[in-house]
Amino acid sequence: MRKQLSLLLCISLIISMQALHAKDARYAAMGGAFTAIGDDANTILANPAGLGFIEDMELVISSSAGIQPSAALLDYTLPEVAELGGIIPFQLRYDPSTGGIFDDLVDGEGKFLIQEGENAGLSFTSVLTDLGFSSDGSTISCEDLGEVTSWYDLVSVLDLLDTALLSLQAAPNVTYVNHGVGFSFEQGISILGTPERADEISISSERSAAAALARRFGPISLGINADYTRTATVGIETPEFADFTSYNQLIAETFGMSDPEEITIEALTGALFDGADTHTSLTFGAGTMISLGSLTVGASLSDLGTIIADGETPVETAMKQLDLGIAYESNRRKQDFDEDLLNLLVAADIHRFGDDEGRSLHLGAELGLQLADWLTAAVRAGYSQDLAGKLEDLSVSEMIDFSTGTLSFGAGARLLVARFDLACSMPALLAEAILGEMSDPGSGQVETALEGLGDIAGPSITFSGSLVF
To answer: Which of 420, 423, 444 is nearest to 433 (CA)?
Structure first.
């Protein structure tokens, strides 16, 4: 074993270079306020009626990279190794003249010995041999030392995911939209950290296929969609440095692999999830949009099946699923299907309108510049927050409560067939603290905000790259 101990580190790097669901970076940057917009493939799931206002055929092959850390990431430090006297293995060096391993931060005769901790006075070579890193059972070679740092890479990545990262997500996506018809297919992988539950991460594979159909009657469009999702999840325990031998044995027994490096390929091909816990769902939704000049109103239901199957009355269940939205668009695209040089788009949604526990507010805005069909640019901003409680009891101050909300912003551009979109979101409380720190340096507002956020999601970034035909 030499390279195989890069295991989930390899997966993490592959994921970070790839790609989210049909709701992409533009959706994220505008705070999810898409119920009344309906001008791109996001409408397949957000509100299928929007397809009735899309006249041009569009085939999009996209890939988005998404990372969502917890606020604890900004305070994260690399773990020290107690068995090696509290040092970090990158400090170890191989001495070809003696074949010994030494700490390059220690001078003098004691440099080959561990200076402190339970193994103080022992040689690095003997301790690493006992931990199972020796390829011949008695000495540590230069190649074996490389395996030590590879293992530490893995332990560090898993520790980072376990304590400070909520998710890394990947999902190449293909969508097709043409005259009231839309299709979307996606197969992705997510690594999910569990800051609230130590010593475990999850690797999840999701396959999703969606189809939507819309029919326009003058200013009114009606649409339906179907969404099939299959999710498979496996759990991976996060090891300590001393777990080297037992962890590799666990990988071999759990996944049937003598070479743990195979897990990287298995994860990407889907074979890793053959025996995993799986969940499948098939949902049907419906929506409507009404264009009133520059103003559009929209409504959508996400799961028509539960309206009939749920124990509550159909009206109560439908209200819990109901998303309502309103959007203003300066160029009246839904009326004359023409594009202006500048276009201002402002939208507001309330999702799950009748659900007192799951209701949420979403606001979004976009300023677009279009020089030609193949040359465009846009800047975006959004805000979202939960609206728990009975709607009639919520005051104006509770409707916009920065202490619980999330701010988002982003940009996008298209050149010929290439389109790029970037979104960043963060707790509004953290954004407010950053602005306060900029106006009053040294006030400690950011540090105070991070302490209050704890394991709550910190700043997240989503990047989408697409080929549009």
So the answer is: 444
pTM greater than the 0.90 cutoff: no
Q: What is the maximum alpha-carbon separation in the chain?
A: 88
- Count Cβ atoms within 10 A of the Cβ of residue 98 and give its class: 0-12 exposed, 13-18 middle, 19 or more buried: exposed
Q: How many CA atoms lie within 13 A of 266 on its CB side?
A: 20
Measure the CA–CA gap between 297 and 292, rounded to whole angstroms: 8
DSSP 331: T
Residue that is written with structure tokens 């997966």 in the block:
11
Q: Which residue has the tokens 């099939």?
A: 228
Task: Go through 221-233 and write b for each residue having 16 or more CB atoms within 10 A of its CB, e for each that does not.
Answer: bbbbbebebbbbb
Please give the single-letter amino acid code of residue 261.
Answer: E
| E strands present in 196-341 | 200-217, 220-237, 277-292, 295-301, 323-329
pLDDT means per 10 residues, the chain with 469 residues, are 41 37 78 92 93 89 80 76 91 88 80 90 93 89 91 86 76 90 90 66 87 95 96 83 85 67 60 80 96 94 80 82 95 62 94 91 95 92 89 68 86 94 88 83 76 66 88
Geometric angle at alpha carbon 433, from 405 and 455, rounded to 5°: 60
Give the separation between CA 304 and CA 225, rounded to whole angstroms: 10
Question: Roughly how many angstroms between the first and final C-alpha of the chain, as a whole number?
Answer: 46
Using CB atoms within 10 Å of the CB of residue 334, give its burial: 0 to 12 exposed, 13 to 18 middle, 19+ buried.
buried
Residue positions counted in the chain: 469
Name the phi and psi angles at 189, rounded to 5: -130, 140
Residues 360, 351 contacting (CB under 8 angstroms): yes
Looking at this protein, which amino acid is placed at residue 405? G
Q: What angle do helix axes 428-439 and 445-453 make, rounded to 10 degrees?
A: 170
Q: Per the structure block, which two tokens stand in for 235? A: 């759990």
Q: What long-range pairs does 312-321 form, CB within 8 A, spacing at least 24? A: 316/354, 318/354, 319/353, 319/354, 319/355, 320/352, 320/353, 320/354, 320/355, 320/358, 321/352, 321/354, 321/355
